[in-house]
Amino acid sequence: MIYQAELGTSHAKVQRFAALGAFLGEQVAPDRMEDTRLAAMLCKCDLVTEMVMEFPSLQGVMGREYARLDGHPEAVCLAIAEHYLPARAGGELPTSPAGAIVGVADRLDTIAGCFAINQEPTGAADPYALRRHALAIIRIIEQMGWDVSLQDLIARSLELLHGVVPFAGASVSKKVLDFFRERFRHMMLGQGYPGELVEAAISAEFDRIARLRPRMDHLKQFMTESEAFPSLVLTAKRVNNLLKSQAVSKGVEPGLFKDPCEGALWGVFQDLKEEVKALTERGEFLQALHALTRLQQPVDAFFEGVEILKKDDVRLMENRVGMLQAVSDLFLRLADFSKFAI
Fold it and tell me: Which of 178, 213, 218, 236 would be 285's cystine partner, CB 3.0–4.6 Å?
């Protein structure tokens, strides 16, 4: 049974998303691995039955009933039916870990495969419902609270496609990630989040879907409650504007510092780097934003105290640019503050 001419049979697709489901399941539900594996292998079997061929809306429903008749565990039967959820935009989501895992893996294999063969959606057409699939994946990951890397999932899905069709891995991976970013943006705007807040959040770290909404909520709270927000935005923009025309630095050598303001900025950055990382890992984004405000004064002093783009001393210039790149990367753990209109 052909799934798609370039991507092969339905059996080949099942093999791919079963492997992808195992990769995801090991991270989020290691105690449900056998249920997940079996549900993935069985979930498309009912598509070749006369019942589903006659009544396509019964896909999954009949699969669940056939699995029950065959004596499979109820968790597997439920997952077979639930992996199709949500059936429509805003629809009911899977409740079982196995159903959610298989549903995400199946949809991501479809998205990755279509992008690999240049069948991505256009403004006028989306024949494989990729936009709906991406939104479903986002909603499932959010509801299940899975702290997983979307980039790793995409990379594993594309890895499973190697040998099936030729494609440029890095380029396709970026396109798929950007596709998810755009679907998340539309979802958040549709739910009433301010445009500049959404852009600031998704233009920064966009990988762990379950953390995005809490980070946006904390950023919104920081915007409305903290008097330091406008000045922090201006400081971040100052850094960003200088870096726009600079190449990626080779790092920072404290031995090259010539002015006290350089050591002062580097010292504050070193103190903050691990603190901000730990806070964001724990989901304490508001505290991390307040911590970032400690960079404002030393960054401003650095701009006032030294000539950063010192063309007659390339090593010194690269060192100073490197410091600002490190500071910018720290800001980007939480938001791209250049997106705010201040």
Answer: 218
